[in-house]
Write a structure and sequence with these properties.
alpha+beta, Hypothetical Protein Pfu-838710-001, 3 domains, eight-stranded antiparallel beta barrel, 9 strands
């Protein structure tokens, strides 16, 4: 099993990296060599879809076949199965699979791919100038370092990537994060989520990356509460990081939405487990900062792209709203620039590294209390959490028909936390009961969400008008419509609540 932390760095900082005291002072003299790889797959990329990589590398006059399987990425920390064998030339030799690959599933995937259609073909090439050295943070412990300056080519398209890999030769992943955090104080490093092959596949497929929803989360009843928390938190962290480049590079509205959802899920998970563990104060401060940066951009996106167009769609003549929509869109773009700067900043990278280190090393174990309950089976914790959330939601929803906007907002927050909990623990309960429960919660949350969007819209519209007399009429029209909408939503909310109230908890 190979475990490594990938960090992206601009090529112009290569010399500064190699001169850094943490690498230069303790390390053996770096040595350089050149690698040339060709990656193989089927024309429909069957292997890549199954997280299997197959390449042939030329190194020091020899040909080496390499197969990787099951890339598990947790905040830049990559874990995978890997096998190598010598081959006679630049093409794979699948007859050697049984000699070296001891994982039956991987063997089946490669052989099945080769047997289909036109079989395996070169997909892209990679030429790498690699600088390697070793760091000894403590006696008897080693971190293998490699700086790869990689040029990828596929079908005449080319791209370049510079990447620092820190690989474990001991069993303490905390050392990788410690070294990365120390280097990141002096150098512009960013976490590398993609594997070596992903950039080449992106060239081959020529697809614009899309926003990513949360990946499937599977817990088992054999897990401890601590293990379940790790799985949940890493799932949320990956959800955020899978979308951060869409925010930082493309200013993509849906990527920002999904990144913020991932962050909200993470904050909900931390709140759910707060009686057993607490995030370090400095990391919590950075998480709150990121929440504010993403939240501002998302609020303006909703106003400009959902709330105001929704009103316009119900009008025979949308002209009265055109000025407000244009002004809101301009303000949303301004906040996207700010969100992109935040996600590109060293502070964001530090937050992600600190979060990943805390999760990977179970940093909460240094805190007093909670150890016995963390070791208990997760099924019991999940059941009690859902029961508590259910009681809280019912208590807040009492008198919902006459509730103030602030009280309804509290109901919405309770519904959202209850839904997140049900989704986190879904695999521990019967699928049908979870699906029905989550669907009813989602309907209630969405209906209450319309009111929240209206309340946020009222606040943001008030910010647009001062000093902008040409916007007064358009903003005034929108605010008036929203007031009328809020006043007429009682029945829809009560209908959603009664529908949820009839449904029992997952079991």
């Amino acid at each position: 099993m190979e475990v490594e932390l990938k960090l992206l760095i601009d090529a112009k900082f290569k010399d500064a990296l190699l001169r850094h005291p943490l690498l230069n002072g303790q390390a053996a003299r770096p040595h350089e060599h050149t690698l040339s790889d060709t990656y193989f797959d089927t024309p429909d990329l069957r292997l890549h879809a199954r997280h299997v990589g197959l390449r042939v590398r030329r190194v020091d006059g020899r040909w080496v076949q390499n197969i990787k399987s099951g890339d598990d990425v947790r905040s830049g920390l990559h874990s995978r199965l890997e096998w190598e064998s010598p081959v006679a030339g630049p093409a794979p030799e699948l007859t050697r699979l049984h000699e070296v690959v001891d994982d039956k599933k991987t063997r089946r995937e490669v052989l099945a791919a080769a047997a289909m259609g036109k079989g395996l073909a070169p997909i892209f090439t990679s030429k790498v100038k690699r600088t390697e050295w070793e760091v000894r943070p403590r006696d008897g412990e080693h971190i293998a370092c490699a700086l790869d300056q990689r040029r990828l080519e596929s079908g005449g398209k080319k791209t370049a990537i510079s990447e620092l890999e820190l690989a474990l030769t001991s069993r303490d992943p905390g050392q990788l994060f410690d070294l990365a955090l120390a280097l990141q104080q002096d150098l512009p490093l960013h976490i590398g989520r993609r594997g070596k092959a992903d950039g080449g596949y992106a060239l081959f497929a020529a697809q614009v990356p899309a926003a990513v929803k949360a990946s499937a989360l599977t817990l088992t009843r054999r897990m401890s509460t601590e293990q379940a928390f790790q799985a949940i938190a890493f799932n949320c962290l990956s959800h955020m990081q899978d979308n951060d480049q869409g925010v930082a590079v493309r200013h993509d509205v849906e990527s920002l939405h999904q990144m913020r959802v991932g962050m909200r899920r993470l904050r909900s998970a931390l709140s759910m487990f707060k009686a057993l563990l607490q995030l370090p104060a400095d990391v919590q401060t950075d998480l709150d900062w990121l929440a504010q940066e993403l939240g501002a951009a998302r609020d303006w996106d909703v106003l400009a792209g959902v709330t105001l167009p929704g009103i316009a769609g119900k009008l025979a003549d949308r002209a009265p709203l055109d000025a407000a929509i244009a002004a809101a869109a301009e303000r949303a773009q301004h906040h996207h620039v700010a969100a992109a700067a935040a996600v590109s900043a060293a502070r964001y990278t530090r937050l992600m590294l600190n979060m990943a280190r805390w999760l990977q090393t179970m940093g909460w174990r240094a805190q007093p209390g909670g150890k016995r309950r963390l070791a208990a089976p997760v099924a019991r914790f999940a059941r009690r959490t859902l029961q508590r959330d259910q009681r809280r939601l019912r208590a807040r929803a009492a008198g919902l028909s006459e509730a103030t906007p602030a009280a309804r907002h509290r109901v919405r927050i309770a519904a959202k936390k209850t839904r997140y909990a049900a989704e986190f623990f879904a695999s521990l309960f019967a699928r049908k009961t979870v699906r029905r429960y989550v669907k009813a919660l989602t309907g209630l949350q969405d209906e209450l969400g319309y009111l929240n969007d209206a309340a946020v819209a009222e606040r943001l519209l008030a910010e647009l008008a001062p000093g902008e007399p040409q916007l007064d009429a358009s903003v005034g029209f929108a605010r008036g419509y929203l007031v009328a909408r809020i006043a007429n939503d009682d029945q829809a909310i009560l209908k959603r609540w009664h529908r949820f109230a009839r449904i029992g908890m997952p079991r």
